[in-house]
Amino acid sequence: MKTKRQIEELKRKQYQRKRDSKLVETEARRGSWNAVQSLRPNLKKRAFSQEEEQFIVEMHAKMGNKWAQMAEHLPGRTDI
């Protein structure tokens, strides 16, 4: 049998999933992905590492401004 606290925690998690899902749907319709991206826990928000920066410089020299394609090769990064 679950305690009252465990039940409340389950309800809170269910609410958060519903809220996050609605936020994703709303922002997708509006075209704003900033809020959607902030929900991705594996998204890196810090500055580029030296290795990432070197990769970007090399790929930009080869590909030009193809940021979405470059981001596919940088785990946790996005073209936004």
TrEMBL record:
Under Gene Ontology molecular function, one entry of this record is:
DNA binding
The UniProt keywords, alphabetically, are:
DNA-binding, Nucleus, Repeat, Transcription, Transcription regulation
Q: Does the keyword DNA-binding apply?
A: yes
Please name the InterPro entries in this protein's record: Homeodomain-like_sf, Myb_dom, SANT/Myb
On whether rRNA-binding is a keyword of this UniProt record, the answer is no
Q: Where is this region: Disordered?
A: 1-23
Per the record, its GO cellular-component terms are: nucleus
* All copies of domain HTH myb-type, residue ranges: 40-80
Q: Where is the Myb-like domain?
A: 40-80
* Localization in the cell: Nucleus
| PANTHER family to which the protein is assigned, alphabetical | TRANSCRIPTION FACTOR MYB33-RELATED, TRANSCRIPTION FACTOR MYB65
Protein name, per record: Uncharacterized protein
